[in-house]
Write a structure and sequence with these properties.
mainly beta; two-stranded antiparallel ribbon; 5 helices; 23 strands
């Protein structure tokens, strides 16, 4: 592997224009890679070999102009202009062979392999990005602040109609604590701020707008079984694919009070995202499974709160506590737009519903909590077709005494959290200190739900021997356990409901206790600092979730449990 890279820049200042600076940045990276391998034991000891080569060249060029000026020490401006480009070029060749008649030269003689087993592939890729920005910052007496920005970005991977995106924004701030009417002893700093603007996300690969033609050796039936190279269009083109844009309003307040004993910020945001980059499913009759496109509009809003306070401060005792809280909600406003009748429909195949969050749990609703058909129901002949004793009873949503996915599924909840919070504590008494952090995610009534129970279609032997099941196994239905939480494991019902549990948890995530020896003691040993400590991570979690970890939402059938780490340490500085 060979890597040749360089970074260079130059600054130009004009003596007759104070505060002016022009900087040019240039960076480049050229990488070549050669991977060669011969395995004499491969292909039943007849030998396999390959030679793969690749080259990558990437470079970027930035032009940055800045002008910083202060007028009468009360007006301050900072102007920045940027124009840049980056470019990526990739090329590769891969070849392989098997069943060598003469293995002496190995991968340096691939032609010595069986010609019918040769493999050859090659590829190349190129992408370019352009970016332009103008930004002006102005403040008056460090009290009133305004920032205006406009970006113009281009990406070669978008369609020819939408390669360029324009994203303006403006931000305002008012440092109220600098006003004479708020010269209070207990207010150290107080600032109101608000911003409104647009940002773009490209979120596509370099060739997502173009059709893809795939090829493979193909046998032609009806022509003596001859083999030829078959080609077909495996991905559709979309020349209208363009930037995903988010326009948002952000307001907040920053404060520092009581001689810095209490500080923090409160922030509220409201964002609207449109032209969302999304792969929608297509009917298989079209020959394609989906297509990347710009669809819909999503509204996002939330609040974030951070507080840090010093509760105790004395010569021997100190206690700092930090609290953070966040809550976010999103709602789909539009998907594909109105149809010919002026009505906009949900995209059920993709689990997208207008007026609902982007992530939903859309499934059959179980009657009651884990109610199932029993053996007595079979004897009475009341079990519908597709069900059996030990399978869930599901709600007939449209009450037509029939079951179907289109008529009887509904939104049961959401996997997103209702809110999050964390509490960090730092306590110290003389040379002893204690730190612990509590992390929590809560779901309210309908949020932060998932399925975490046993997998379906396992026989008892496979279930018992699988990984690390919970103590005592799952509470699944058997004739001798008719009131179980989970249905029987050896049946595949036609209409499958599931028990979705909330993943609420409170976790003692980090704890550290330490003792620092007194200087008077360790100086005699020619030691500058001596500290012993013990720490633990994920010590315990309060939750009703039955899976491995409520934070990841993984059930017992996949993933791993949260590991508890314990550490005992000694820090010595000489």
């Amino acid at each position: 592997r060979l890597n040749i890279f360089g970074n260079m820049h130059a600054d130009i200042k004009l003596p007759f224009l104070e505060g002016f600076n022009y900087r040019i940045n240039y960076s480049q990276n050229y990488i070549t890679s050669n991977r060669n391998n011969f395995n004499p034991q491969g292909a039943s000891y007849t030998g396999t070999a390959y030679k793969n080569t690749s080259q990558q060249y990437v470079w970027s060029l930035d032009n940055i102009v800045t002008y910083v000026k202060s007028f009468k020490d009360i007006h301050n401006i900072n102007l920045t202009l940027v124009y840049g480009v980056d470019d990526l070029n990739i090329s590769s060749t891969n070849s392989s062979a098997q069943k060598f008649l003469n293995p002496e030269l190995g991968y340096n003689s691939l032609e010595s392999g069986d010609p019918t087993l040769f493999s050859l592939s090659s590829g190349a890729a190129k992408e370019t990005s352009l970016y332009t920005m103008a930004r002006l910052l102005y403040d008056f007496r460090s009290k009133y602040l305004i920032t205006g920005t406009i970006r113009r970005d281009g990406f070669s991977g978008f369609g020819s109609k939408s390669k360029i995106g324009l994203f303006p924004s403006v931000a305002l701030a008012w440092v109220i604590s600098e006003e004479n009417f708020l010269k209070l002893n207990w207010v150290d700093y107080l600032k109101l701020r608000a911003s409104y603007g647009a940002s773009g996300r490209r979120g596509v690969s370099r060739y997502d707008t173009q059709a893809v033609v795939s090829s493979n050796p193909t046998i032609i039936f009806g022509d003596g079984g001859k083999t030829t190279m078959g080609q077909w269009i495996s991905k559709m083109a979309n020349n209208d694919l363009g930037w995903e844009t988010t326009t948002g309003l952000n307001t907040g307040i920053d404060f520092n009070l009581i001689n810095s004993r209490l500080n923090g910020n409160i922030e509220f945001y409201l964002n609207n995202t449109k032209n969302i980059l999304y792969t929608i499913q297509l009917p298989l009759i079209t020959g394609f499974s989906g297509i990347m496109t710009n669809i819909g509009k999503v509204r996002n809003h939330g609040i974030e709160l951070t507080l840090t306070g010093n509760l105790l401060r004395s010569q021997d005792v100190n206690w700092d506590i930090s609290f953070n809280y966040s809550r976010n909600r999103n709602k789909i406003v539009s998907i594909l737009g109105p149809n010919k009748e002026g009505v906009e429909e949900d995209l059920v195949a993709n689990n997208l519903f207008i007026g609902e969050p982007q992530a939903v749990i859309y499934d059959y609703e179980i009657v009651g909590e884990g109610q199932m058909w029993q053996l007595s129901d079979k004897v009475a002949g009341v079990i519908p077709a597709g069900f059996a004793p030990g399978t869930y009873k599901i709600v007939d949503q449209n009450k037509d005494e029939k079951f179907s996915a289109s008529n009887d599924k509904k939104i049961l909840g959401y996997p997103d959290p209702a809110y999050r919070f964390g509490i960090a504590n730092n306590l110290s008494y003389k040379n002893i200190s204690l730190y612990f952090f509590i992390n929590s995610i809560q779901g309210g009534k309908n949020y932060y739900k998932a399925y975490g129970g046993p997998p379906w279609n396992w026989n008892n032997y496979e279930f018992i021997t699988h990984k690390n099941g919970p103590k005592g196994g799952f509470d699944y239905w058997m004739p001798e356990n008719p009131n179980a939480k989970y249905r029987r494991l050896d049946w595949n019902p036609s209409y499958e409901g599931r028990v979705y549990d909330q993943r609420n948890f409170i976790r003692l995530q980090d704890v550290t206790i330490s003792y620092t020896f007194k200087k008077s003691l360790i100086n005699k040993l020619s030691i500058n600092n001596l500290r012993i400590f013990a720490s633990g991570k994920n010590l315990f979690t309060i939750t009703k979730w039955e899976g491995w970890d409520p934070e990841t939402g993984r059930g017992i059938d996949a993933g791993y449990p949260v590991m508890t780490d314990l550490t005992l340490g000694l820090n010595v500085e000489f």
